Structure formats: C-alpha cells, structure tokens
Amino acid sequence: MVSVISDIGNGRSINQDFTGYFEENEIRFYAIADGMGGHNAGEIASEIAIKTTIEVIRSNLNTEDLEELMRNAISEANKKIYNLSNKDKALKGMGTTITTCLIKDNKAVIANVGDSSCIAIEGYNIFKITRDHSLVQELIDSGDITEEEAQNHPNKNIITRALGTNASVEVDIFILNPCEVERFILCTDGLTNKVKLSEILEIVYNNDEEESCKKLVELSKYKGSSDNISVIVFEGVRKYDRNYTRE
C-alpha cells in the first residue's frame, strides 16, 4: 500500500513540492522533491527532478547496480535543471531537493540531495535514514547547536546541496533491507520542521497509509507550518508477502 499527499500549506501561494512513484511487479520506486527559486521556478525544478528520475529508473529496470542507477538518474535530473536554468533568465538559480527510495530484490536503495527526508518505522521504533544537507545540520554536527536549538533556528531553511545549482551534484546513498522496515515515510521539510519523529511514529503506527498522510499534514498545518507539505507513506515489506519474507 502507498498513499501520497502534497498540500500547499498555510502560507504559500504556490506548491513547489512534487511527488511521484511507480510499482511494477517486484520493483517499486518513490520520490519527493521540494523546489526553490522565484515564482514558478521551484515548481518547475521539482517536477523535472521527479519526472526525469522516474524516466531513467523505468528505462533501466534490468540494471543490477541499483546504487549506480540511482546516482545516474538523479545526476541526469540535475543536468536538465541546471541547463534550463542557464538558458532561461526567468528560471535562473532554480533548484530542488530530492529524496528517493527504490525497492528491488530485497534491497531498498535510498538517495537524497537537500533536506527532504526518508524515515523508517519498524515495530514501535522510528529512525531517520537520510541526513539533511543544510546549514543547521552542519551546526549540529560541529557541536555549535543542539538538536533542540535547531528546531527554531533562524537559518533552518538554508540548504547546502540541491539539484540544479551546479553542473554536477553529489548524491548520498543508503542501503536497507526492506524486510526490516514496516513503513517508509518520504517527506519535505514542511512536515519535519513542525512535527517531531515521535509524533510521526504515533500517527503512522496507529493508522493505515492514507490516514497517516492525512493526519501528518493536518498536524503540521495545525502546528503552524507555512511551507508546502508533502508526504508519501508506503510499506517496506508488503503485507501479502511479509510472513514469507521473514521466515
């Protein structure tokens, strides 16, 4: 099961987030992006990122090196955004985050650029798989601020890595066994800036995928998120093959 919601949020006139996924036999792919730039530019960047990445993945489903496939797909998206940004003055400087998850052959390959997140739940445990490419994350890593101080830091929205801002991009890759994860959550920072991991766990643990998405977005808006909010909730090992896989 999978459910997706992308909400404009409380304070924006346009939704610059974009989501996408496909499920074909034993291959599943999910992606989320949070655009940045002037009016419409961020929206264009995030759409290009998701559509290009999906196109490259779907065209190379027989590839055995899934990590390289993911890097190539995201790099191709980066190139398209960067080139378009340099050709059109109205789109100059546009960029986007991207976070993806490809599940195939009992392997989950997660990739990210920027500060959109991939989160995993197993039982009543939750952990964030990706690490934000952001100024605040760098301050946390250096010990200059604490996790608590980061929650309300004035530079919370400054990201240090994005698609489309340079001719090439570094992609972080994480490998998991999907059989060890009951639910994955992909989300933009419109959710994580306001909703704690413990709150995400409580909602997703007690609801199906559709209700989880709805309640996560509702909670983020209730807590005052002015940003776009996008969430994808999907199974790790799917219900119909869970008992078999775990034997």
Summarize the helices and strands and which ones pair or pack.
Blueprint: E1 2-7, E2 17-24, E3 27-36, H1 41-59, H2 66-87, E4 95-96, E5 98-104, E6 107-113, E7 117-122, E8 125-128, H3 135-142, H4 147-150, E9 172-176, E10 183-187, H5 189-192, H6 197-205, H7 209-222, E11 229-235, H8 239-245
Antiparallel strand pairs: 1-11, 2-3, 3-4, 3-5, 5-6, 6-9, 7-8, 7-10, 10-11
Helix pairs in contact: 1-2, 6-7
Q: Your description of this structure?
A:
The chain is an alpha+beta fold and 247 residues long. The protein has a single domain, classed as Phosphatase 2c, domain 1. The chain is built from eight helices and eleven strands. Strands 2, 3, 4, 5, 6 and 9 form a six-stranded antiparallel β-sheet that branches. A hairpin with a 2-residue loop joins strand 5 and strand 6. Helix 1 (41-59) runs antiparallel to helix 2 and helix 6 runs antiparallel to helix 7 (209-222). Residues 242-247 have low confidence and may be disordered.
